[in-house]
Amino acid sequence: MSPLAVNIKDLGFSYPGQSALFFADLNLKVAAGERFGLFGPNGAGKTTLMNLMTGVLSFPEGSIELLGQEVKKNNRSVNKLFGFIPQDFSFYQELSPAENLEFFGAWSGLHRQEIRQRTDELLEVLGLTDVRNKPVQTFSGGMKRRVNLAIAVIHHPGILFLDEPTVGVDVQTRHAIIDYLKELNKKGTTLIYTSHQLSEAEDLCEKIALIDEGKIIAHDDLQVLLEEHRQDGLEGLFLSLTGKDYRN
Amino acid sequence: MYKLWATIVKDVRILYRDKVGLTFMFAMPIILVLVITSIQNSTFNLVNKNKVSLIICNKDTGAVSNQLIQTIDQIGMFRLLQVSGDQSEKAITDRMHAKDALLAIVIPPDFSFQLNAKAKKVAGQALNSFGLEGDTLHTKVAGSVDPLSLYYHPILQESFRQSIQGAIYSALQLVESKQVLKSLYFAINEKQLPDSLEKELLNNRIGITEIPVLRDGSGIVPNASQHNVPAWTIFAMFFVVISLGGSIVREKSSGSFIRLKTLPTNYLVALLSKQITYLGVTLLQAAVIFAMGVWLFPVIGLPVLNLPSDFSGLFVVSFMCGWCAVSYAICVGVFAETQEQANGFGAVSIVILSAVGGLMVPSFAMPGSFRTVLQLSPLHWCLEAYYGLFLEGGKLKDVLTNIIPLFVIIILIHLLILLGLKRKKLI
Fold first, then answer.
1. For testing contact with chain A, the best of B263, B265, B422 (most A CBs within 10 A)
2. ipTM of the prediction
3. pTM (2 d.p.)
């Protein structure tokens, strides 16, 4: 068996002010090098689980290991192992892409020379070289998404968490981002992806987990799940497992 | 170290591009210092150089009231507007409402007669006490003198009114003394007091030399700039809370903060960077405002700001004031949940702390109960330290007693910041 990128054991978590556990004894394993998708309706707990795995939220019960290091105990060193693209634009809008990469590169533990080299590479690959010195606040949504991605991968993370990385972008940008993510995965980066763009997810993910009301209701290879539930697409599978009722 | 450097560079870039924030941090304090110093200076001039218009309505027909008017005129504080004695009270107050004058004095009928009678009575009593025969008739019949009526416009502040009352009292005292002296002289010599003797006795005022108690013995009399520039520089430094407190809240609620939390760097690096960056801003604010006091003030007719002779002391005090201001702003930013909270609480708390700290009303003029409270205001210690240098001509060692409590307050604020960061799980 390949080493685990993510190993969640008996995770318990409740939101502040709520006595009932939102996640109770949750277990999940993601092998290193996988393109893993985490899906579910609104409020299912996808973003919460992402935030727990990345240490944004803390948990009282269970354990989460990333590439063998525990998130809870070894917070700072484990943070070098992954990159995170939150749903919101997570950079300084007043700064240019190069300036954002300079700052976040330093905070990721890189040295000046490495940052310069990676900045040139990433801006080139993501088509931002021409605007490298312009403030990000003047950019389109698609360009901002690419900046968001560049910052998350500047330190060559072993795992990349992507929370709706292509929301609000045009088809061209979406394809460019997905292609780049596949490239990263070929080089060994594990992708932990969540989105409501199910066609995009089908294209990107090999393995998926469906989560609903804080519980994992399905977890396997995408093809295996489709065959098992006699569905020809992720959307059909999603609806058959989570139902058609509104979610809050 | 590189992380800290990169963070400082990031903070400076963001600050430099925030033109509104920069305007707030530099232009507003400059305008504030200019306006306050100009107003304080013109108040000083109003009392000492300019003349206040004073309506005089003399209902008396005797000579003493004219002497009183002449004496008031000789004080030099007033521009007298004499109106006829038959003017009604309404006519006078109407003129005051029209701002023709802010003050009016009505001298009552028979003022001269009553004052003369009183003077003769006092002279008679004096002669009797010397064992000489006085004017027993006047001693018995003389009553009190009807009071003068002083009308004032409500815009005049109490302290100013009191200084005017004091001046008028001294004029009255002089006229009264003159009449008593004349009566005494007449009773003894049975002839009028010679003019030369009258002048010798009454107009020979002893001067008062004002000597400021300065540590450096320079003898430079502190002016409105020496009082106002340090005070409002401190106010400007602490007003960095609007920009810095807001910036921390903005960062906490922005997407970038989530990323910061997932990176292998402690958030304290971000706060240390903000502390260094904004400390630089506060020192620059002080430098700009002081430079303005030295070079711009004399050009626009305001008194020049004399910098303390101990430049290292000035730097240390400015550094401590800036450090305290920045620490306070970070504390507000850490605890505030929204930018509105940070801005609202930050601004109001600085106004309160500056009022309590003696920036608006001198601490010596505060009620006793406030004297303990004011020691809790960091602005008080900042002001005392600056005044020690600017007004008393002291050196660093002379203001250490103000710097030490300020340092203790800074440490307490930092403990509070750490507590807030722990409670909010930011570190």
1. B263
2. 0.88
3. 0.79
